[in-house]
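Incident log, entry 3
Record: PDZ domain-containing protein (360 residues)
Problem: checksum mismatch between cached and fresh output.
Input:
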Amino acid sequence: MIRVAPGLRCLSLLGPRIWIRGYQTASPGLLPGDRKGNGLLNAVVKVFSTQSTPDFSMPWQNKPHEYTTGSGFISRTPVGLRILTNAHLVADTTFVQVRKHGNSERFEASVEALAHECDVAMLNVEDQKFWANSDPLVLADEIPQLQDNISVIGYPTGGENLSVTSGVVSRIEMQQYTHAATSLLAVQIDAAINSGNSGGPAVKDGWVYGIAFQNLAGADGIGFVIPTPVIHHFLDSVNSKSGYQRFCDLEVKCQDMENDHLREYYGMKAHDSGVLINKIAPLSSVSGLLKPGDVLISFDDVAIANDGTVDHPITGRINFQHLVSMKKVGEIAMLGAIRDGKKIKLTAAMAAPNYLVPIR
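Fresh output:
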């Protein structure tokens, strides 16, 4: 069973969301930091999506069509100019249209790539008229700092025209992505993020630092943005020879080791730290390497604390699963562990989780 954190919800008008990314400077001689006013807003689009989701209680038919709207923006990707948006906006879609800011004409779009777990999708428009005079936004390579001022651009409920709201970065940590109930890095901001904002770019100094995708229902000033490392991971994977590869996971159940008696029982010394491995999925990439009862003390030579966190230059501490999720499928990771009171080193080829029932 997939569990969704209570109160978290995706954002769009009746269901949409969108995102954006760029690899190069917006246009010759124009740096992202120079993009102001219309030069920034012209890359943002409104997405119109008609969806027909499966009816799992009656699998021989789909549910009635739903019409939703959301936000997105034009960005330069490894395969050229594309529109990045949320997966939950265009999943199970039968018809998608996009409209540029300041333009009355809608253009038909198609879904080229979609990743449910990170809630990102990439759209293309065949009509070259749409791309004329396009000035793509550029993704930053790093995540924002705490207290950085961020502007969220999109098409939230309450009107038809583009909306810009501003706030500050208030928290950066692993969060549950409600679309697929996966946990990945997310940026919390206090800018107003309402239905329809989902998929809009979060911008600072002309650079895109993330994509708005959900908020916390019943709370004010708690919205979430997908940070650029997650978006880059998606785009790099889509451009690989093997196509999109999902985010890696050790598929283990861990227990904190903050109890002194528990630490002593498993042979940990005063200066040791780590998490206890309680269970390992049979198809996990570390099955046969790690064993239940091992204490995982490091990942890629980064020490794991007794509460399961690792040092991070911006957030201070973050769950070690972030390091795992940023690895590429097939990439080798170095694992440090304590087994029967002795320290050991292991190497494992990272892999995406093997779900018996797909997340979507």
